[in-house]
């Protein structure tokens, strides 16, 4: 595949966004006046050639930062963790591939950081690594191929999750699936599904009828909670993220799924401060007031309900070994490999800044959670 243009072409945004808005308005008209919010979000983020993730840059030059865009330390932490896991499972000492799978790799930066760190730490292992990027988009795959060419046969691609043993890793993937939004009508004692319609040429929010596909989710909300929910309280869920996790669990032979993302667990689901939901739009590192105004030119995202994702994995037979803050897990990884981090000379100001961004509670350390679910790997024999 020929390398595509690098992400981030802000100059082209208004035309692209206007074209996408036109397509959305057409679909609204075809659908009798409204579409579900989830459908709007799907097109805004993933419409081939026009959606946000078809052109977005992540990091300082883009609209938001991630642990990956803070610098190469995140990839180094993962590479060191992978080496320990491969060693623990007896893979390093016998011939055969060393597997690592990443989904939601965007432009391939994390894979580059991971493999570059590995080349510095254990160059002998690099030819044995089988780093698979799960990437459904031809555009993003072209960016990744261009960035990772130097690692040759160590890198492979799959359009969907292949059956695997080992680790399937993702950072800020689960929050990027289209979400369903429902609003509570306290007077009528019922839920409305939230949708998008057109008014005077603008895309605006509206209420639409329920879809029975969401009965189980809404029906699981305790009646005693409904008695006290304020009018208009919004609940969100992500059927796409849950289905993806279920697929990943089915594809996993032995090993684990690791997801880093911001979100909450079951105990924190109905916090009163979240009455309007957690949907956010970002542009130029600022919150956007109107998330419907320019589809394709802003990032749309919502907190991950890790409690539900955890249930999906456990229903598929996985065992939860971690659900806690990013700070807690990364600190534990570091403490478990303390000799590697002990050299004060290696802690340049840039590296220290990256560690603070990854771990400090006011940066990524607390709001970001990590879920690890496993199908245990037999002891090496
Ligand atoms: C918020 S970005 C995170 C990018 C990167 N992991 C990081 O942390 O900088 C989410 C990425 O997941 C991708 N994505 C969404 N659905 C996907 C899927 N089903 N499989 C693989 N990638 C997906 C999006 O296109 C986007 O590139």
**First-residue to last-residue Cα separation:** 42 Å
The major β-sheet equals: 8 strands, mixed
Order of H and E elements = HEHHEHEHEEEEEHHEHEEEEEHEHHHE
* CATH class (first level) name: Alpha Beta
Reported CATH architecture: 3-Layer(aba) Sandwich
State mean pLDDT (0 to 100 scale): 93
Number of helices: 12
Strand content: 15-25%
Tell the overall outline.
globular
Small molecules bound: S-adenosylmethionine
- State the low-pLDDT regions, or none: 1-5
In CATH, the topology is named Rossmann fold
Rg computed from alpha carbons, rounded to a whole number of angstroms: 22 Å
- Work out the count of structural domains: 1
Amount of helix:
25-40%
Question: How many β-strand runs?
Answer: 16
Class from helix and strand fractions: alpha/beta
How does this structure look, described?
By secondary structure, the chain is of the alpha/beta class. It has one domain (66-198, 208-293, 300-325, 343-355, 368-381): Rossmann fold (3-Layer(aba) Sandwich), CATH 3.40.50.12710. The chain contains 12 helices and 16 strands. Strands 2, 3, 4, 5, 10, 14, 15 and 16 form an 8-stranded mixed beta sheet that branches. Strands 1, 6, 7, 8 and 9 form a 5-stranded antiparallel beta sheet that branches. Mean pLDDT is 93; it is low at 1-5. S-adenosylmethionine is lined by residues 53, 58, 66, 68-69, 103-106, 134-136, 140, 171-173, 176, 244.
Which structural traits does this protein have?
single chain, 381 residues, alpha/beta, Rossmann fold, five-stranded antiparallel beta sheet, 12 helices, 24% strand, binds S-adenosylmethionine
């Amino acid at each position: 595949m020929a390398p595509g243009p690098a992400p981030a072409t802000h100059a082209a945004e208004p035309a692209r966004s206007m074209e996408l808005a036109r397509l959305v308005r057409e679909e609204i008209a075809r659908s009798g006046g409204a579409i579900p919010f989830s459908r709007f979000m799907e097109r805004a983020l993933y419409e081939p050639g026009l959606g946000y993730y078809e052109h977005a840059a992540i990091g300082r030059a883009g609209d938001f930062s991630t642990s990956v865009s803070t610098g190469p330390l995140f990839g180094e932490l993962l590479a060191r963790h992978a080496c320990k896991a491969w060693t623990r499972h007896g893979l390093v000492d016998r011939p055969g591939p060393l597997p690592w799978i990443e989904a939601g790799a965007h432009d391939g930066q994390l894979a580059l950081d991971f493999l570059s760190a590995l080349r510095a730490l254990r160059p002998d292992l690099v030819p044995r690594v089988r780093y698979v990027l799960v990437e459904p988009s031809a555009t993003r795959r072209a960016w990744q191929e261009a960035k990772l060419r130097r690692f040759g046969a160590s890198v492979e691609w799959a359009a969907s999750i292949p059956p695997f043993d080992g680790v399937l890793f993702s950072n800020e993937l689960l929050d990027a699936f289209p979400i369903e939004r429902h609003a509570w009508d306290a007077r009528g004692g019922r839920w409305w599904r939230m949708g998008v319609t057109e008014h005077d040429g603008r895309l605006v929010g509206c209420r639409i009828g329920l879809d029975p596909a969401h009965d189980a989710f809404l029906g699981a909300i305790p009646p005693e909670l409904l008695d006290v929910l304020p009018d208009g309280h919004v609940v969100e869920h992500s059927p796409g993220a849950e289905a993806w996790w279920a697929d990943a669990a089915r594809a996993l032979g032995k090993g684990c799924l690791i997801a880093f993302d911001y979100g909450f667990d079951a105990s924190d689901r109905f916090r009163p401060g979240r009455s309007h939901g957690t949907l956010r739009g970002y542009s130029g590192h600022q919150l956007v007031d109107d998330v419907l105004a320019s589809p394709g030119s802003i990032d749309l995202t919502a907190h991950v309900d890790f409690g539900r994702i955890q249930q999906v994995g456990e229903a598929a037979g996985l065992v939860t070994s971690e659900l806690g803050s990013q700070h807690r897990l990364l600190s534990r990884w570091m403490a478990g490999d303390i000799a590697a981090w002990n050299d004060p000379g290696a802690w340049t100001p840039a590296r220290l800044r990256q560690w603070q961004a990854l771990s400090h509670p006011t940066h990524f350390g607390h709001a970001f959670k990590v879920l690890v679910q496993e199908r245990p790997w037999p002891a090496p024999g």
